[in-house]
Specification:
Elements lengths: L8 H11 L33 H7 L4 E5 L1 H6 L9 E7 L3 H7 L6 E6 L2
Parallel strand pairs: 1-2
Antiparallel strand pairs: 2-3
């Protein structure tokens, strides 16, 4: 049976809450720099033209954007230009995408763009 490894924002919040100890801290994790924001998208892909205001604010001064996964990195944002450096990483899982890119099914794509 196929599975999807994408995690939605509500699922991530639930997972983080389950990992917290009795004091409300993540066990054995330095979470001082951990920020979690809803993308504003309901699908595994991410439409950068309609992200949540929270994510836009948090990413405003980013030095690097990393987009991971076929939907986010390849299908919707492979050619997107950012205000900062970006890395797009994904595996081609659809024959149509492989054909469009001139590659093969299950090829991995790594694309680095300087700002």
């Amino acid at each position: 049976m196929p599975s999807i490894n994408d995690v939605t924002y509500p699922e991530l919040v639930e997972i983080i809450n389950k990992l917290k100890d009795a004091d409300g801290k993540l066990s054995n994790v330095d979470a001082s720099g951990l920020l979690v924001a809803n993308s504003g998208n309901d699908l595994p892909v991410i439409d950068l033209s309609s992200v949540s205001p929270e994510l836009a604010f948090m990413a405003n001064d980013a030095d690097l954007v990393v987009l991971e996964g076929m939907g986010r990195a390849i299908e919707t944002n492979l050619y997107a230009q950012m205000k900062c450096d970006s890395i797009k990483i994904g595996m081609v899982k659809h024959p149509e995408v492989a054909q469009f890119l001139g590659g093969r099914l299950y090829d991995c794509v790594f694309k680095f763009n300087e700002a």
